[in-house]
């Protein structure tokens, strides 16, 4: 029984390996430059976040402190981004977080992340299509909404009020563009992103001439007593919904940054991935952070937060300051920006499907590459149809909630993967065989006897990282529980919280003392282990802030995934075949030697 469990554990934690020669060989077309990747990243990020999320968070959740919400979300994204950048230089393959986790943590965790990335990209594309449809509808006085509500109603609380045929059509049209080829899609994205950036610059420049500092310090008496709505209008000031509102807003604003991992997903199609991936990720996150903060400042200084229209924040804001003509200029930017975001949401989906299918963890026929177009055509079609179906029946709010958990889990696993990778023994067999023998093992926690990673030090670090993640999860749960129960000042809560804080500090210190690998790449995550640990901690906190309904949907999706992996992926894994072949060859060699 023990040997069976050990074999089962070894199988589900097997790691994907690449040799140096095959790492850069791909059936996909390597044609993207640093400029292409950066514009793809910016284009996929500055869409729904700019024109939809900003207004929603400022109006309903954070007020003027939406700026801080975006800053917190930006920090979380940047911390994850530098971890993505390091792995992008080490394993420049399609699949992004899925591939990174496979090579460093193991197969089962890679499948979990890959399966969630599929959900993330499908929902991301569907929500962007819904947002584009809603914005276009607002420019034509909601003619589509009225028509679809009458002729295509969906009589269920689970789904949207009506079937959005326009959003479904958008997904299918973008899918056709992606089938043609990634270079052609990138050119189209560049044009749309340029138009979007021009409009955003114009909005910020003109908006700055209409700002009023008083809108950041509205007194509670000035907030109107609105009785005919179901939402809370807050208490005025810079934090009308309190610090909790700002943090809750950060969880939503985080959705606005998810486009940057598109850069990592297309690593197998970039010309010089070691240089292009980290450079493009950093540029994307810096530019988008600046733009989100700029538009948040302008919009909340132009209009009192409680008067913002979350569905059409910019047109209504300029109408409020007596510049209604800007409605059509902003509309052009919004439509091109959200379309570029839709393109960026659908583009990585077939790459992730291709990577997982090529490894045999889902049905292998999905990984077929068209010989002339050099695109994963079956994966592209399946991804487009799935996104179109989701856009047809779900509304924007439900879609955004459903995708957040998969994104945050992917970011956390990439950060954990960086920690595992940095503390692994180097390739030198002599160094790998060295094990500390001076004194008890507990002394190795803070005073390692070797300067290079060893098998023992790697095992110690693995246990420390596991305890660190578990401790951080409990720490975040305690904080959220205390804030909801208003028990933060109770002595028992303070003592328990302090104990876990001290444990977290001890664990981080112990990890930092362990010897790290000196094997360098073009880009390395700075301040390891502190940056990855902080990334995991922030992501864990944001995950626990999600609604119970989100966890239920996540559970259903994971059950479906585990069934596919259990009945197909576990048995058809390419790495399983490689490991079995190596085991047979090593067994044959041993027999020959003994004979």
From TrEMBL:
Compartments, as annotated in UniProt = Membrane
Q: How does it sit in the membrane?
A: Multi-pass membrane protein
Matching Pfam families? AA_permease_2, AA_permease_C
Ranges that cross the membrane: 34-54, 66-85, 97-118, 159-180, 187-208, 238-260, 281-308, 328-347, 376-396, 403-423, 463-481, 493-512, 527-544, 551-571
What UniProt keywords are attached to this protein's entry?
A: Membrane, Transmembrane, Transmembrane helix
Ranges of residues in domain Cationic amino acid transporter C-terminal = 523-573
GO-annotated molecular function: L-arginine transmembrane transporter activity; L-lysine transmembrane transporter activity; L-ornithine transmembrane transporter activity
List the GO cellular component terms. Answer: plasma membrane
Q: Which residues form a coiled coil?
A: none
InterPro entries, per the entry: AA/rel_permease1, CAT_C
One annotated GO biological process: L-arginine import across plasma membrane
Main location class: membrane
Report which superkingdom the organism of origin falls in.
Eukaryota
PANTHER family, A to Z: CATIONIC AMINO ACID TRANSPORTER C-TERMINAL DOMAIN-CONTAINING PROTEIN, INNER MEMBRANE TRANSPORTER YGJI-RELATED
This protein's name: Cationic amino acid transporter C-terminal domain-containing protein
Species whose genome carries this gene: Rotaria sordida
